[in-house]
Amino acid sequence: MAEIATLILEFIKCVARPTRSCVDNHRNFKENAKDLGDKLSTLNCKKVDVENQLLNEVCSEKQAKKEVEKWVQDVVKINAEIQDVLKRLHSASYFSRARLGKLARKKIDVLDAILKRGSFPEGLVVDKPAIALPLPVENLEGEDSVKKKIWGYLTGNEVRMIGVCGIGGVGKTTIMKHIHNELLKGSRFDKVIWATVSYPLNVVRLRHEIAEAMNEKLQKDDHDDQRHASKLMHLMGKGKYVLILDDVWERFTLGCVGIPPPTAENGCKLVITSRKVDVCKSLGCEIVKVSPLSKEESLKLFSDKVGSDILQVPEEIWKAMVEECAGLPLAIVVIAGSMKGVTDVHEWRHALKELREHVRATAEGSEDEIFERLKFSYDCLQDSNIQNCFLSCSLYAEDYQISKDDLVEQWIDEGFIKESRSRRAMLDEGRTMLNKLENSCLLEKAYSEDTIKMHDVVRDMALRISPQFMVKACMGLTEIPDECEWTKNLEKVSLMDNEISDIPLNMCPNCPILNTLMLQRNSKLTQIPNCFFANMQGIKLLNLSGTSIESLPHSICNLENLTTLLLQNCTQLKHVPCLAKLKALKKLDLCEAGIEVAPEGIDMLVNLQYLDLRCPELVELPTQILSNLSHLQHLTIYSNSTTLKIKGEEVRGLKKLETFQAELYDLQHFNNYVKSNHFKRLSNYQLVVGQVDCTFNPFINNFSKEISLGEREVGGEDSVVLPNDVEELWINRCRKFRSLSDIYSLQKTTELRRCVVTECEEIGCVVDMVTSSSSFINNLEALYLDKLPNLSVVVNVEGVEATSPHIFSNLKSFGMWRCSRMKRLFPIELLQGLQNLEKIILQDCQQMEEIIGNGIICCGSIMLMNA
Ligand SMILES: *[C@@H]1O[C@H](CO)[C@@H](O)[C@H](O)[C@H]1NC(C)=O
Ligand SMILES: *[C@@H]1O[C@H](CO)[C@@H](O)[C@H](O)[C@H]1NC(C)=O
Ligand SMILES: *[C@@H]1O[C@H](CO)[C@@H](O)[C@H](O)[C@H]1NC(C)=O
Ligand SMILES: *[C@@H]1O[C@H](CO)[C@@H](O)[C@H](O)[C@H]1NC(C)=O
Ligand SMILES: *[C@@H]1O[C@H](CO)[C@@H](O)[C@H](O)[C@H]1NC(C)=O
Ligand SMILES: *[C@@H]1O[C@H](CO)[C@@H](O)[C@H](O)[C@H]1NC(C)=O
Ligand SMILES: *[C@@H]1O[C@H](CO)[C@@H](O)[C@H](O)[C@H]1NC(C)=O
């Protein structure tokens, strides 16, 4: 931090310094010096162009070429040299001038050469080489000898293909993840590729997965099998690979997938993990068998997982419990998870008895062994709601990284979370349940904090105790399962993430007790037959999000028990039949759907709690609809059309509203709405007046308390009235204010965190300390200014005797673009307040360019990052 303060200080000193300090009369000398300065400016401008272009082009797949990086470094280096020369030129005595003039000429030639090297006709970026990331993995307990054996085969010359076998839950995948992560650290192989295969084998998906693991892409819509296989063959043929295929169930041939066989010549290796020895043998693998843990290893793993509470439990009880786990690491981890936090001896004794009863019926070495032990942990959950929450995770594809937010939302929709007066309370309860499942190890961590995963063996168990589920998620299906598979006893069907393109016209499955149907992300699905839902009267949750349907079938109109209808991102959807009979509907999500008119009968949906009408093409919403929906907790409305606007009085009566997003009719309606104090009920809002034309995004879901003003007169005492708890403010093309201090009601706000001001003609400074107090800006964390032609200072302190030490003391991020009159950034008085500043971006502020351009820092753009 200190560094950045000095940088700014330096910077301001530079700006303040008279630019023509040295006047010289030695013409030649003067010209040389000027040429040198000019040349350096040109070079620095070029550097800025290159850097800007890089900012645009570098992404997850592209990186800057080495020569470009080198060039940029060279420019930085030469700058230091030239600054030095310029300094000496400026202070040169008469006698040293001739020599220095020569030096200047020489340096000009050097600059010319660098400038010439700075054109990159072939482009600035190249594809990134494949970078595999380490996989998140538990500590490995025991299994040392197995690991050594596999490692020996991988590093030796005898064995090319290795089959790691053992029953589910014995730790095959964990061992391989450890080996994978170690392989990444070494350079034995050019490519370390991990792909999960699962059941049933989907060759097309497997090819994509392998390609993606190499940071390559196969044409998505190309269905020419042969071409795909040979493309993959070609990609894998470059360099020495080690390929790990996890969880293989069926035989296949390498050539058919597009995997070049590992040979002594190419030095490649293939490892397969499988529960089936014969599958590994059929591929010709050397078998490595993973055995259960030894007694000591089991005891250690179990006590590590339970933690220090284990000390309070009589040894003979917990050791007996570990014995029942049969050395299966997964069972040990999950059962230990269930017992974590339990200290009562009675409870432990009871659990031991229960576990023994589960185990009694299982035969050693069969899949039942693990099943019954995991089932024990499931039974330990006791609460049927949390058990249901757990089971519903199995509706996702194997190995799927489930978004925590989506999952909790789904549990609410499925009715597993107690009805509560507020959505926030329900979201909190959902998170609590999620944490419970994670703590009990029935769900496990995924790559990112926001997602969670289900172990494939745990998922098998969940599906085994839910015969009333039909789950075919992400299996590459192009057709919907045959009608005879839709049996009468089905309760939940998940067909998400497939390629189902159409449904036979007369298909009308008879599933009277089906309550959940997940068809989301079948992006090729364009039509659902009209009668499709006729015999699914019990359906409560229907997710058709991300399909390409153009209309909703009529049979939907009669689903009187439907509580949740999700149509997010159905961009082709134009026709929705009358929904008036869907009296039970609580949630209707049409975010980014293609409809132009609001669904008929929406005003009859009096139980609606959640309504998302952010439909880019929606033209208008009949008035009076909203005021009838008195249970609404979540209301988001947005459209591309300028006619979809809400009058404040329509929502003022909604007493349960928590989240509200809309464009208000005009400034007057907005002001009246704010004055009604209805906003005080809200935990999130995003209110817009006028067209906001910048990178403002109304389709993100995590907005806090935001106001956006476009093309309004916002200054003066009787103009805009802002809620005093506003946290984020966007001002675009607004008039009648010379500084934010002129927006009278802004001065009464206390929570402002982010502020973005763009394209306002008049604003001369952001905060005017001369005319008003500036406390409203004290909490500000980010300030972004763009295209403000009259802006000349950020804070006006002219003539102010003492400035508040708090001003900008929370500012972390500051950005300024295209503010052509801007001369100085922060007055020196404020520097000590800027202790939290991490990032400054300045770009295209010409006046600064002129002053700085005279050989002090560089031209136009500086980007200081100190994150
Ligand atoms: C419905 O599908 C959407 C789109 O993929 C997804 O984001 C959402 O979580 C799903 N909701 C439920 C309840 O299934
Ligand atoms: C919307 O659907 C399209 C394809 O139908 C997909 O490419 C896009 O990612 C989806 N957007 C979201 C936000 O899910
Ligand atoms: C609708 O829900 C009610 C109450 O849960 C139930 O009694 C009724 O049987 C359901 N209707 C159908 C057709 O499943
Ligand atoms: C909606 O509310 C208005 C008055 O507030 C009322 O006249 C109308 O009948 C209501 N419509 C429904 C469907 O309840
Ligand atoms: C929104 O409107 C603009 C211009 O009015 C148009 O260019 C853009 O395609 C529209 N976007 C959508 C999603 O309709
Ligand atoms: C909201 O989500 C977007 C995209 O996921 C992210 O970039 C942004 O930082 C988030 N904003 C907040 C305030 O969390
Ligand atoms: C530019 O800003 C100055 C200082 O705030 C102000 O006095 C002046 O009126 C502004 N000019 C225009 C054209 O708005």
Automatic annotation (TrEMBL):
Signal sequence interval, chain numbering: none
Any one GO molecular function term: ADP binding
Sequence ranges assigned to domain Disease resistance protein winged helix in this UniProt record: 395-462
SUPFAM superfamilies attached to this UniProt entry: L domain-like, P-loop containing nucleoside triphosphate hydrolases
Keyword Nucleotide-binding included in the entry's annotation: yes
Record keywords: ATP-binding, Nucleotide-binding, Plant defense, Repeat
Identification of the protein by name: NB-ARC domain-containing protein
Source organism per UniProt: Rubroshorea leprosula
